[in-house]
Design brief:
With 161 residues, this protein is mainly alpha-helical. Helix content is 83%, strand content 0%.
């Protein structure tokens, strides 16, 4: 019994630690969400211009459409809450990933895109779910919660590629 309780305490500890963290400031969430969406759109536009894979082309088009919408939704909620909104810019990882995609050609670009998308969507899911759960601005929390299932759909699609 003692072993079971110790194991249960260790399993529960990371979740407790996560919920004990200070909430992300709204301006940081908006900046990170914008950077994430910009990477998704930019990388997807690069692949759309060159891929011959119809499934990948459909996925990339979905990325442009869905991430354009999420940028608009976050921006509208931020403005309604009087949170400053700067134009989105790529973070260091996004810039590095876009540069790598530009350097890759053909099937290598397609494979790299899928690999990058898998990692980027896990990061996006953590950002959106984290703000939905622990954010401080109700309108942004609602938008983040609405983005979560969209990102989950993208992750599911990526698992088939």
């Amino acid at each position: 019994m003692k072993t079971f309780l110790t194991a249960a305490a260790l399993i529960a500890m990371p979740m407790t630690a996560l919920s004990a963290q200070a909430p992300m400031p709204a301006s940081t969430y908006v900046m990170k969400a914008g950077a994430s969406d910009l990477y998704e759109k930019t990388s997807s536009q690069l692949v759309l211009a060159t891929t011959t894979n119809p499934k990948l082309k459909g996925f990339a088009q979905m990325m442009v459409t869905d991430h354009t919408k999420s940028t608009e939704d976050v921006k509208a909620a931020a403005m309604a809450a009087k949170v400053k909104v700067a134009p989105p810019k790529l973070d260091a990882m996004g810039a590095k990933n876009v540069a790598a995609l530009r350097a890759a050609k053909g099937m290598a670009r397609d494979r790299l895109y899928v690999t990058q998308q898998k990692a980027a969507h896990q990061k996006a899911l953590a950002l959106q779910q984290g703000y939905a759960d622990n954010g401080t601005v109700p309108g942004l929390k609602t938008v983040a919660a609405g983005i979560v299932p969209v990102v989950q759909t993208h992750i599911s699609e990526l698992q088939t590629m």
